[in-house]
Amino acid sequence: MPIASAVPPRVLTVAGSDSGGGAGIQADLKTMLALGVHGMSVLTAVTAQNSLGVQGAWELPAEAVRAQYRSVVDDIGVNAVKTGMLSSAALVETVAALIAATDAPAVVDPVGVSKHGDPLLAAEALDSVRTKLLPVATVVTPNLDEVAQLTGMTVTDEAGMRRAAARLLGHGPRWVVIKGGHLPGDPVDLLTDGSQEHWLRAPRHDNRHTHGTGCTLASAIACGLARGQDVPTAVRAAKSYVTGAIAAGFALGAGIGPVDHGWRLRNAR
Question: Which one of 74, 204, 211, 251 has the largest count of C-beta atoms within 10 Å of its C-beta?
Fold first, then answer.
């Protein structure tokens, strides 16, 4: 007779695919499996992508995105939502409205460009991100390139990270994580809600294979929130997981390889 098991926390990713398996929906679901939650997905776009870059991208219609989301949420339910590639204003506004009507925390990774510099968000969609998506976010996780896109600010130091966070908080998210990995020195991220600051530092690993880092961090945060953790606890745990995944990143193809989402599982053998 089968033994009934407890239902794990449920996390829904709303993002594009990465045919190379290092970022996007694939990275999100690998992260969720590694962190012990049940991952579900809403596909927003299909990309032809490998270690060298993005060779093509095809956006899904807004009605297909809405139908996927409603199918999952209305039947299975969610404990947290994570967003990634939303390539157009129509998709941004569709997903923002869906999140606003969902009683679950939302982690927004405002994906603007790929690791290789390929654009993944239309310029005309930036205003929709600012006015529709950020206000429904529990946590928003931009890197410095995305900060520049959303605020027009070029960040070169920790003081600039603080100013950028304040600018982004003005658009309505409850918390902001400014990812400072592109600054010189050891990587530092700033987590703030405007009243408290958490500076998250980690050693820099000499490993160029970091494809999928942003997707992985946002998904890991969503996993923690789905487990009932508060935002600072979830972000610290996600930072620790991603740091290990970067250290274990491996070469794949002729370009930039992925982080290792299963590094803890392999280390446990």
Answer: 211
Respond yes or no: is residue 210 known to be catalytic.
yes
Residue type, 181: G
pLDDT of 204-239, one tens digit each? 999 999 999 999 999 999 999 999 999 999 999 999
Q: Select which of 112, 214, 224, 257 is catalytic.
A: 214
Specify whether the CB–CB gap between 133 and 95 falls below 8 A.
yes
Q: Which of 179, 223, 239, 243 is catalytic?
A: 179
Query: Which residue in 13, 83, 94, 213 is the catalytic one?
Result: 213
In a 10 Å sphere around its CB, with 0-12 CB exposed, 13-18 middle and 19+ buried, how is residue 124 labelled? exposed
pTM > 0.70: yes or no: yes
Among candidate residues 44, 82, 215, 257, the one labeled active-site is 215
- Which one-letter DSSP state was computed for residue 211? B
Catalytic position from the list 31, 94, 141, 210? 210
Is 233 assigned a catalytic role? no
Placement of tokens 């803890």 in the chain: 264
With contact defined as beta carbons under 8 Å apart, do 177 and 147 qualify?
A: no
